[in-house]
User: Which sequence fits this backbone?
């Protein structure tokens, strides 16, 4: 990750805040149709009953308005945690710092991400004629199921899905950037960072597809009465018994494709926006 100067000053946190918000908005708006198709492939209803190829931008406004604070919070906390702990460890242990920083960022970001995912995925798979806003969906979930079981249903499964993803993606991204810098006199362009992000995102996405599938099934479930069936292990066991290993990787192709393209856009825009902020907006 590019150095943004004195990371302990208040102004230094504005750089990843601005760059993260810009990157999150860019990638979510660009790749939303692929995410919709992936969600419908993973839906228990089946692809066509969940909407098929129609209305692939349904729920986009929810994501667009929430992606900015989510990714901004992630990168601000990621950079802040990394800046505190990285000077305390030897260079060979840097990946552990990146993993820890990513876990802090993901845990905080999920406070915004989970309600957004609830509203988004229920919109993506809604086949009724009545229009439902994201706020209305979340209010209904809160009234009927409460805060933990409704609005934050799947919080743990989302964190458990996103942590392994970040444990793979962020250290890989940082490692590949270090290799590029070592061969380029310490410099790296936004394009090169984007390529590193694309490769890291694709590997992480393919590896964590079963966890993403479990999270999707939990969030889309109609009720919360069968508590045992709405936990990660029983959900994955049930899918495996019905469809085998292939079933556990339902939606892996659009997910991997989305994250490879998304990684390119996300990390490229992040580094470019960060450079713009450091050069112009921070003055």
Assistant:
């Amino acid at each position: 990750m590019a150095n943004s100067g004195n990371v302990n000053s208040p102004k230094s946190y504005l750089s990843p805040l601005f760059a993260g918000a810009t990157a999150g908005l860019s990638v979510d708006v660009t790749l939303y149709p692929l995410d919709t198709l992936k969600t419908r492939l993973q839906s228990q209803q089946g692809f066509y009953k969940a909407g098929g190829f129609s209305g692939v931008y349904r729920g986009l406004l929810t994501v667009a308005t929430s992606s900015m604070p989510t990714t901004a919070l992630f990168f601000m906390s990621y950079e802040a945690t990394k800046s505190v702990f990285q000077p305390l460890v030897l260079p060979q242990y840097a990946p552990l710092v990146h993993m820890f920083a990513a876990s802090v960022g993901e845990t905080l970001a999920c406070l915004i991400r989970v309600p957004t995912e609830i509203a988004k995925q229920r919109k993506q798979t809604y086949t009724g004629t009545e229009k439902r806003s994201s706020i209305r969906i979340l209010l209904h979930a809160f009234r009927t199921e409460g805060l933990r079981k409704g609005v934050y249903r799947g919080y743990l499964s989302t964190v458990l899905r996103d942590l392994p993803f970040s444990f793979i993606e962020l250290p890989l991204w940082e490692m590949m950037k270090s290799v590029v810098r070592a061969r380029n006199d310490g410099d790296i362009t936004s394009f090169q960072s984007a390529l590193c992000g694309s490769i890291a995102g694709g590997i992480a996405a393919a590896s964590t597809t079963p966890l993403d599938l479990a999270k999707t099934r939990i969030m889309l479930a109609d009720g919360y009465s069968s508590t045992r069936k709405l936990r990660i292990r029983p959900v994955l066991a049930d899918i495996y018994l019905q469809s085998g290993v292939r079933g556990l990787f339902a939606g892996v192709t659009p997910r991997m494709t989305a994250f490879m393209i998304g990684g390119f856009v996300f990390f490229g825009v992040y580094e470019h926006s960060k450079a713009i902020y450091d050069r112009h907006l921070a003055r």
Notes: Confidence is low (pLDDT under 50) at residues 1-7, 224-228.
